[in-house]
Amino acid sequence: MPATNPHRPDPHRVEFATTDPDSAQRYLTAAYDATMAISGDHRAYRFRHVRFDSGPFHLDTLDHRATTEYRCGPVSTVVVGRVHRGVRTDLDLDERFGPGDLGLHAHADRPYHVRQESVLESVVALPPEAVAEAACNHPDGPLPPLRFTALRPAHPADARRWLRVVDYVSETMRAAPDFITHPLLVGPFTRLLAAALLTAFPNTCLAEPHHHDRTDATPAALTRAVAYIDANADLDITAVDIARAAHVSVRAVQLAFRRHLDTTPTSYLRRVRLERAHQQLLDLKPGDGITVAEIAARWGYADRSRFAAAYRTAFGRSPGRTLRG
Questions:
Q1: Are 137 and 207 in contact (CB under 8 A)?
Q2: What is the pLDDT along the chain (325 residues), one digit of tens a residue?
Q3: How far is CA 41 from CA 46, 86, 180, in A?
Q4: Whole-model pTM above 0.90?
Q5: How far apart (Å, rounded) are the C-alpha atoms in residues 217 and 221?
């Protein structure tokens, strides 16, 4: 049976299926930017791949309906796989991942030799720079070296937190494909996944707070950070950007918000964006043709129901009612 050609009615979703290992090999080589050689029982071979691609990161589902073995060169992304069916074995490390297991693949300096036995697996792939940036404390310093010390989460609670974040991002991408590449959506989602990955898998990136972080968390630093957020809330600004504008470290600006405003930089930014969305809804006139969903996405909300809940809490009425006047 020939391969099913990937077609893209949704520009952020790719689907491919085949019973031909050679076609699967060519496809996987292109999809993962790695050289792969698949061996196994060709008569029983089945392969299906679905990818949701935001740009910086992608979410994949891979279904191998046969026992396959492949080798690939070093992978340029940080990958977390979750096995739903079958067994996936890293033959070089003698690591076996069965149903429910999470496995990290983040070694850019070594090839992989893997056996898959009728595996159904979901995958999250992130650029290593995004993961390192999530651990960055000094805005103008080098990115911390990215090194993981284990392939599995340290505790079940860490795995559950990771899965909750992945489920939230996945559900949002499926529900709002038209908005998923908007900078105020994809940027925060990338950083959310990166931060969740760092807390789920043991690593050497997250350093202990420095005493300067505490002494630099001053009202003046907070004033600079607030001014920067207020002036740039329509842009995809990061914690590093805010810290740079405040002339302090990331942890110092986080502590300043907690100490003086009892909130976080992210929560303050979210509140400013919600207020901007509220003002835009007030300013719209009948016939403008702008929907609540478009306003929500413009200010970083892909999920209209989440936007409506936050809006109702802040302003005591629904965004639709505001739009209708």
A1: yes
A2: 445 554 445 677 899 999 998 898 888 888 877 667 777 667 778 899 999 988 899 999 999 888 888 887 777 889 999 999 999 999 988 999 999 999 998 877 778 888 889 999 999 999 999 999 998 888 888 888 888 999 999 999 999 999 999 999 998 888 777 777 788 889 999 999 999 999 999 988 765 567 778 899 999 999 999 999 999 999 999 999 999 999 999 999 999 999 999 999 999 999 999 999 999 999 988 778 888 989 999 999 888 888 999 999 999 999 999 988 7
A3: 10, 16, 39
A4: no
A5: 6
Residue intervals in the chain for CATH 1.10.10.60: 269-324
Task: List the structure tokens of 54.
Answer: 């935001």
The CATH class of 13-128 is mainly beta
Region 269-324: CATH code:
1.10.10.60
Asked if residues 176 and 235 have their Cβ atoms less than 8 Å apart, the reply is: no
Task: Write out the H or E segment, with its range, that includes residue 31.
Answer: helix 21-31
